[in-house]
Write a structure and sequence with these properties.
The protein has about 110 residues and is an alpha+beta fold. It has helices at about 60-70, 75-90, 100-105, and strands at about 5-15, 20-35, 35-45.
């Protein structure tokens, strides 16, 4: 079973109205691991600032910002990408044999 870890890797802020350090963009990655196999996808999410729902920058946590991100991205697509990548690593496609042309062998 694949385990997923969401991590915020960067925050970009602006002053909106009288609120300083409003997060407008968050960079993140999602790492999936299963046994010895690992897959990572990175992304960047833009937010619309709502001055009525403001959390001071110092009070933000990875989990809180990840929740914001998850509310805006297609989680199923991210999980599907990671699952497929790990499956391909666990079960690499067979490489066909580069066979010489038969008329050259004669």
């Amino acid at each position: 079973m694949v385990k997923y870890k969401w991590t915020v890797t960067g925050l970009y802020t602006e002053t909106v109205g009288d609120k300083e350090n409003c997060v407008i963009v968050a960079d993140y990655n999602v790492v999936g691991t299963e046994g010895n196999y690992r897959s990572t996808i990175a992304g960047s999410q833009t937010f619309v600032v709502d001055e009525n729902v403001f959390i001071p920058y110092k009070d933000l946590t990875n989990d809180l910002v990840v929740d914001w991100i998850k509310n805006l991205v297609n989680i199923a697509d991210i999980i599907d990408f990671i699952d497929t990548d790990i499956y391909t690593k666990e079960n690499p496609p067979k490489k066909p044999t580069d066979t010489p042309l038969p008329w050259i062998l004669k």
